[in-house]
Design a protein that fits this description.
2 helices; two-stranded antiparallel ribbon; little secondary structure
Length: 96
């Protein structure tokens, strides 16, 4: 029996080879008040999340540099997402 984590890529994930795969995940907003309104969407239940482009990428992502345009004000959930951890590797594998 194979563990799912064993099938994830383990090559060194660094800032220089980041594919910003996490920027394709839904980023729910909790007590994030510094996010510019143009990047916030609210659903019918009043839940807020980061806006996404038609192709699924976060609206705050600079597609030329694959960097967050609001990095200093990025949501809490993005701050907690750690590069190279399981969720990161899983997102990268899903986008291959």
């Amino acid at each position: 029996m194979t563990n799912e984590a064993e099938s994830l890529p383990v090559a060194g994930v660094t800032c220089t080879n980041c594919q910003a795969s996490c920027c394709r995940l839904e980023a729910m907003l909790f007590d994030d008040t510094d996010i510019p309104d143009k990047f916030v969407v609210t659903d019918a239940r009043g839940n807020m999340s980061m806006a996404r482009l038609e192709d699924g990428w976060c609206a705050a992502l600079d597609r030329d540099t694959m960097s967050c345009t609001i990095y200093e004000k990025r949501p809490w959930i993005c701050r907690e997402f750690e590069m190279g951890e399981y969720e990161c590797l899983s997102a990268r594998a899903a986008n291959l």
